[in-house]
Amino acid sequence: MTPVFNPSSPQAAPIFTLFVFVLIACVVILALVTSLVVYACFRYRRRSSQGDPPQRFGSQKLEIAWTVAPFLLLVAIFIFTARAMSSSDPTPAHATSPDIVIVGHQWWWEAQYPKGGFRTANEIHLPAGQNIGVLIKTNDVIHDFWVPQLGRKVDAIPGFPNYLLLHPDRSGVYLGACSEFCGEEHAWMRFHVVVTSQPEFEMWERQQVQAASEPASPLGREGARLFQEKTCMKCHTISGTEAKGQVGPDLTHFLSRQKFAGERLDNTPENVARWLRNPQQIKPGCHMPNMQLTDDEVKSLAAYLEGLR
Ligand SMILES: [Cu+2]
Fold it and tell me: How many CB atoms lie within 10 A of CB 183?
């Protein structure tokens, strides 16, 4: 089902209920107006034998009715909207020390976990059934963080951090997307929120805080060397190594993610090689340049990256 029609948190549910209420009201009005127009067309159509029908002007009763009815409807919509606003956007209790800091980049999402001291990209893990304070920032232009099943949209605005409270009801994988046009690869600034039970989340956390695994094969070791030599390290971090760049996604546990490059590609060895050969062909305009690698270099680097579990 379309995600917006399947809310999975106490913050997303009131938005959905409000939508359904307004939709039903609109459908009823549309049906009423359409049938009145059709009825009038037939009932009062011109008949050849008659002259003009009797002419009438003004009707106080009708005018009061069609002023009061929309007024009452608008009051009802106003009340429902105000209630949905307060329940979909409660003041986050953790505003001062967020559980997660989300940073929008052209064109990928960074997720920092301040308590664990690690960061990841485009795949955000959360435990189910808990309040999670999220701080939303941007590294460049305005982006907009939106997971339809979990809550409202929140803008990431330069110099103006925003807060969002997330409270996923149940385990699942929820699609998210940037919902503010932010440049040519805006459409490929997608992400997933992976909600699991608390023990599963803690397992994931324990794995993410670890330093990167050492390359096991000679090919992987060659890749690790190239990663330093080819300046990948200037833009990417791999914890436990010299690589501390902040321009691109943290690659410490690259293989633990299902997709990469703002979810443009599934994380398979072939796709990683394609990406390394020329990212500009896959995400034109993205901030990773074509590194002009030879086929052998691509092979070694891919072997290294595929060992980062
Ligand atoms: Cu965007």
Answer: 15
Render pLDDT for 14-68 as a digit per residue (tens, 0 to 9). 999 999 999 999 999 999 999 999 999 998 888 777 777 778 888 999 999 999 9
The model carries a pTM of 0.88
Q: In this predicted model, what pLDDT tens digit does every residue of 225-239 receive, in sequence order?
A: 999 999 999 999 999
Q: Tell me how far the alpha carbon of residue 4 lies from the centroid of ligand 1, in angstroms.
A: 19
- Tell me the β-bridge partners of 177: 146, 190
Distance (Å) from CA 176 to ligand 1 centroid: 11
Ligand 1 mean position to 303 CA, how many Å?
A: 31
Tell me: domain 218-305, CATH 2.60.40.420, correct?
yes
Q: Are 209 and 250 in contact (CB under 8 A)?
A: no
Is residue 241 within 8 A of residue 233, CB to CB? The reply is: yes
**Distance, CA of 238 to CA of 252 (rounded, Å):** 4
As to burial, measured by CB atoms within 10 angstroms (0-12 exposed, 13-18 middle, 19+ buried), residue 89 is middle
